[in-house]
Write a structure and sequence with these properties.
By secondary structure, this protein is of the alpha/beta class. The chain has a single domain (about 5-200), classed as Rossmann fold, CATH 3.40.50.300. The protein is built from ten helices and five strands, in the order E-H-E-H-H-H-H-H-E-H-E-H-H-E-H. The chain has a five-stranded parallel sheet, with helices on both faces. Helix 1 (about 15-30) crosses helix 10 (about 190-200).
Length: about 200
């Protein structure tokens, strides 16, 4: 019997991990979960319903995850804040772990997949890039929704989120000891995808 393939992608905001993870999932025909979307949803629900984020984390459904508002800058900021709350992480832990442990295998991307959610994953990639590069990428996405947004504002956001994600007491952002490092700072999308594919194959 073939062992299910489980691939963990971790890294800071706008590193490219989501794009790469979705490509790898498609390559191997695996279900894919962007776990950051769960935290965006929890933060968004807590805000619009004025409820405790830990309660909001238990109310997430497919309709919530499809909300376009989750793609915006504000949702990203709220996600980073609620992700620092241990009760929120606990509420979302089982959802993520169940997804990771599907018989078919899975690909997940987030901040703590290889360290907390699926430390047993045979393939782990830690995707990063310099803050200025990540800010430029995120700005290109967000400026379409908010033409007044400056790249400097996005860089400030990125640095704040990096600090918050790496310093929180509950499941901080860090590279798993056995994760392969992929720095996309100087890579175009095609080169980054090719490198990710090569790294994944090296662990199979």
């Amino acid at each position: 019997m073939t062992k299910p393939l489980l691939v963990a992608f971790d890294g800071p905001a706008a590193s490219g991990k989501g794009t790469l993870a979705s490509v790898i999932a498609a390559d191997y025909g695996l279900p894919f979960l962007d776990t950051g979307l769960l935290y965006r949803a929890a933060g968004h629900l807590a805000h619009v319903r004025d409820i405790d984020p830990a309660v909001a984390a238990t109310l997430i459904d497919a309709e919530t995850l499809a909300d376009e508002a989750l793609r915006g800058r504000e949702a990203g900021e709220r996600a980073s804040r609620v992700a620092a709350i241990p009760e929120v992480r606990a509420a979302l832990f089982k959802y993520q772990q169940d997804f990771a442990n599907q018989p078919s295998g899975a690909v997940l991307d987030g901040r703590d997949i290889g360290t907390v959610i699926a430390p047993h994953a045979p393939v782990k990639l830690f995707v990063t890039a310099r803050p200025e590069i990540r800010a430029h990428r995120r700005w290109l996405q967000l400026v379409k929704l908010n033409p007044a947004l400056t790249e400097a504002e996005v860089l400030d956001d990125i640095r704040i989120r990096d600090e918050r994600d790496s310093s929180r007491s509950s499941a901080p952002l860090e590279k798993a000891a056995d994760a392969l490092l992929l720095d996309t700072s100087d890579l175009g999308i095609d080169a980054a995808i090719a490198t990710a594919r090569s790294l994944v194959k090296s662990r199979l």
